[in-house]
Amino acid sequence: MGSGTIRQVARRRAPERAEGSPAFEVAEAKLFRPPIRAGIVRRNALVERLRMSETASVVSITAPAGYGKTTLLAEWAERDRRPFAWVSVDEADGDPVVFLGHVVVALDRIERIDPQVFEAIGSPTGATQGRVLSRLGSALSTRTRPFVLVLDDLDRLAEPLVMDAVATIAGSIPNGSLLALAARAVPSVGLPRLRADGRLIEVGVEDLALGPPQAHRLLRGAGVRATKAEAAELADATEGWPVGLYLAALSLQEQRRSTLPPIRFNGDDRFVVDYVRTEVLARLSRERQRFLTRTSILDRLNGSVCDAVMERSGSNRTLESIERQNLLLVPLDRHREWFRYHNLFRDVLRAELARREPEAIPELHRRAADSFERTGLLEEALVHAHASGDEDRAAELLQRVGLDAYRVGRIATLRRWLDLLGEDAIARNGGLALMAAWIAALGGDPVAAERWAAAADDVRLVGPSLRGTASLRSSEAMVHAIMSRGGADAMHHAAEVAVREETGASPYRAAAFGLLGLATMIRGDDEVADSLFAEASEVGLRIGGMPIASLALAERSLIATFRGDGAAADDLAERARIAVHDAHLDEHITTGPVRAASARAALRAGDHEQARAELAAAHRLRPILTWAFPTIAVQTRLELARVHVGLSDVPGARTLLAEVDEILAHRPDLGTLTTQAVELRSHVGSVRSGRSAGPTTLTAAELRLLTFLPTHLSFREIGARLFVSPNTVKTQAISIYRKLGVSARSDAVQAARDLRLLEP
Predict the structure, then answer these.
(1) Stretch among 35-44, 55-64, 387-396, 577-586 having the lowest mean pLDDT
(2) Planar angle of CA 597, 599, 602, nearest 5 degrees
(3) What are phi and psi of 425, to 5 degrees?
(4) What angle do CA 7, 470, 529 make, to 5 degrees?
(5) DSSP designation for 465
(6) Which residues pair with 328 in a beta bridge?
(7) Do residues 470 and 506 lie in contact, with contact meaning Cβ atoms separated by under 8 Å?
(8) How many DSSP H helices and E strands does the chain contain?
(9) How much is the average pLDDT of 465-480?
(10) Which residue has the higher pLDDT, 360 or 133?
(11) What is the pTM of this model?
(12) How far is CA 165 from the centre of its chain?
């Protein structure tokens, strides 16, 4: 219930694009196009083929490690008139927010991207991926300047949601532009359809392998004197594998050989392990070997972190020397401050470290964690702390960074970290269990929220407070209040604790007042609740806590409606709606009551079209309005049901009341909300309706599925994303078609867009 910025390995902030749009702190190294090393073999024919393509929209460059995929892309970028947006993919891109954030920033630097795309990506708790991709696809298809978007090292991704995003991007590339994908294996991003349509250029091993003339030029560029016959012999021995030839050239620089190296290259990594060990590392000093193997634990390295890992000084000079020696060190910025080892070389060095000094590896990771923590790079510190075997330290670091990641929508990153630690480690750490419960509750996952809240009950709360909160006691109180654990009285007590703890300038003071307002409201004291919501909105607006500020304004509007003050209710609803718009909170869980208050205001004004628009926006939130946050989940549905009744849509109201019953089955004691549900159910039951089930009777589960229908995914693939069977998906899809009055998936998508249940 706050705001933040996307936090990455990066150091430099990309400029904000529009007032109110999120500022992405990007990893500049990921957007840096690698320089072309002197002495490379130019791929003129391949580059011309890529430059001159007129019908393709996607280029797929697929080959094992060491075939020069990145080098080909860099050479192409150097010689093409079109600007290149470059993203080097890494494990952090398993989070769709991180991946799409970097893609959008890279494209924005070529030609300005619609600020709404940034808004969707930077939405607190994350917008639905369908909404982000809809906006990004629209922005791509309407660009006026041809471009090339490069996604290098795509094989480092395994997250299905990110691959879905790549497929959507591939389908949105405008004429004259290209999406270039480089990977070790053919990525599953809808390439067969592009191939059938003649919109795919494929570059493979046979295109990238070097023949004898190219091998001779490579050896000559590396400073190795070799005859054409010797070059042809090496090309045959390596089967044209560029990295094999390159390593052979390094070896020949040290000692002329009259026969072939004893190892025959064929593109298999295990041959490189043996070759690097015997022909590259063996010729270096013991000190240099030690530096290379020990620093290979780092995904990115600079002089400072290498000094810490090696417990010595002078690593900057060592890195400069390694780069001069062409030991497969790749610069990550123009200042040559940060580097990485070539992926293949790094893997070999790590294997060698495990063979030589396995007992040293945990200590090396501990030193790396210390260094990253000292410089404020807590995410990297977390990863290395875990790799060192210190789970308690990793858990403590996650407590410190978790809520920041949540506030900018990096849910996938958080899940990866939690999976990394494992359920046992989380259950042992009360603070971490609270954080997991908090995130699950505000993300609409009631089962996980209840599991982690119960785990926190069973252990002593120790360690640092969750980032920004006054204490773990306060965090526990806010989690219990959000989830209404123990009923209305218990919620009120927990909220009082939070208000006492979160004093002064605490960023969670507004949230504490808002929760106490909700607890007071369901106990029937609207006057006191209104004053608490007034305090929550005032503090929230002052400190930038827009989710709770907009919620509090909406609650005040609904209270004013209940006491018959329509003018005040309309004014407060409009202020809440503006707060949601300006802070890009359209898909935040706390926006449910805002939409409900706005719908009631529109209905009061006789503006039925606007009332239906607010209803549609509210219905998009229903999948996350669960019994994890039962007060606003039930309240939102009750208020929406009243609007449906006012629009003579009794079936829509009944659908909402059925969902209210499901929530109350888990949280029966919600005070006045429970009473209101009984009364409204009785009223709706007495109203006759001749209307058949239509779009307003879509269930929360069907609305969740609806967001996947515009994608390329099959029902089986959608089921895997939603953790349900293909039969369940099929049954829900048929129900969606029936309620929308269509018979095909594409027609359902169009109908949902017309009804504003999906973005245009």
Answers:
(1) 35-44
(2) 110
(3) -65, -40
(4) 105
(5) P
(6) none
(7) yes
(8) 38, 9
(9) 84
(10) 360
(11) 0.78
(12) 11
